[in-house]
Amino acid sequence: MSIATEKLAVDVEKIRKDFPILQREVNGYPLVYFDNAATSQTPQQVMDVIVDYYSNYNANIHRGVHSLSQEATDKYEAARKTIQKHFNAEKSYEIILTSGTTHGINLVASGFASLLKEGDEILVSALEHHSNIVPWQMICEKSGAKLKVIPMNEDGEIVYSEFENLLTEKTQIVFLNHVSNALGTVNPIKKIIDKAHSKGAAVLIDGAQAAPHIKADVQELDVDFYVASAHKMCGPTGVGMLYGKEEWLKKLPPYQGGGEMIATVTFEKTTYADLPHKFEAGTPNICGGIAFGAALDYMNAIGFDEIAAYEQELLKYATEELLKIEGVKLYGIAKEKTSVISFNIEGLHPYDIGTIVDKLGIAVRTGHHCAQPIMDFYKIPGTVRASFSFYNTKAEIDSFIEAVKKAKMMLS
Ligand SMILES: *Cc1c(COP(=O)(O)O)cnc(C)c1O
């Protein structure tokens, strides 16, 4: 791959050629894709890997002695190593391939159900995606444990001093996202992990929204569990990763029963396979896993420092331009943010703004962004969310600003 970088920023014109979808028009206008926080677009390099898989070595893995099965198994396990290296896990079997972030969270939550007892406590933050709230509510109902919420402030940051107050010897696990998908807030996870460990609590970090922008080092963070989805970082849907410390993965019971996760089966007793297979029941998303590895290779070739620097430029520019429009209110103005802007215009419904800008070819998200408690905090039904990736440009932000102005004119 020949991706040139000029100083810190990325060579965006060259990168855009890797994404065929960016050439298309929507409603007669060039597509401006600003819904990257929901899912990212896929570069040709990753699509080529998918086509190669089905064209040349499609087979079930870990089972056959035949050559195709061997080839598929080798590529799948190589992808696991790529993921291991990317997140700097100590051992490759600490990486469980999942169907995505939601799957990873449910796997851990359901495992904890058997470890929790009446009176235990679980802490989640007020900034969570529904996929971080609902599984834990279900587990609390089953186990009698209590769910407590770390509050947020007006700027969209969690209140650290309240976290310290809520954390006690009863706390078994702390659960929060690395980056909020609704607001883009980057949470001080290292500080939270260290503090939680001082009281003996485990920490699960939802990295779905952080992983496309920040390279997390699970050993340096000393995190117990870290989850992410491939489709938010240039990979396909239906595949993701769960990192778990070996000691924790050994302690948790299997999530699903089936083929691939067993060592021996009789009707009297089944013994489970070693890690990571204990948590990988059934035929996995083989092609997806291999493509996930290719997506990480693609992004690493550009460089995460370069990506972050460029996206911060876009964020700064878009924020300044948007605030020039009268009546615009931003939600989530934390000091540390990824390239997400959540906003409303006084007197207008976010859905109406989203509909008009779509007519002009611009894809943004409107609504509660699967984070209803945040919307309740601000007492709003939802926001318009524009989220930028390293393949977006300042020119696209200009089109977006013009479209928002037009929407405001039409709706006022
Ligand atoms: C997208 C997202 C999820 C859910 O990810 P899936 O890929 O839909 O499982 C969870 N948490 C956050 C912060 C997200 O951004």
CA(first)-CA(last) distance? 49 Å
Bound molecules: pyridoxal-5'-phosphate
Number of domains: 2
Q: Specify the structural class.
A: alpha/beta
Shape: globular
Tally of alpha and pi helices: 14
- CATH architecture group name of the largest domain: 3-Layer(aba) Sandwich
In total, the number of strands is 19
Q: Could you give the order of strands across the largest sheet?
A: 6-12-11-10-9-7-8
* CATH homologous superfamily grouping of the largest domain: Type I PLP-dependent aspartate aminotransferase-like (Major domain)
Function: Catalyzes the removal of elemental sulfur and selenium atoms from L-cysteine, L-cystine, L-selenocysteine, and L-selenocystine to produce L-alanine.
Protein name: Cysteine desulfurase
Keywords: Pyridoxal phosphate, Transferase
Cofactor: pyridoxal 5'-phosphate
Could you characterize what this model shows?
This protein is α/β, with parallel strands linked by helices. It folds into two domains: 12-43 and 303-411, Aspartate Aminotransferase, domain 1; 47-300, Aspartate Aminotransferase, domain 2. It is 40% helix and 18% strand. It has a seven-stranded mixed sheet with strand order 6-12-11-10-9-7-8, sandwiched between helices. Helix 3 crosses helix 10 (286-302) and helix 11 runs parallel beside helix 14. The relative contact order is 0.17. Mean pLDDT is 94; it is low at 1-6. Bound molecules: pyridoxal-5'-phosphate. Pyridoxal-5'-phosphate binds at residues 100-102, 129, 131, 177, 181, 206, 208-209, 229.
Keywords:
Aspartate Aminotransferase, domain 2; globular; 412 residues; Aspartate Aminotransferase, domain 1; binds pyridoxal-5'-phosphate; 19 strands; disordered N terminus; 18% strand
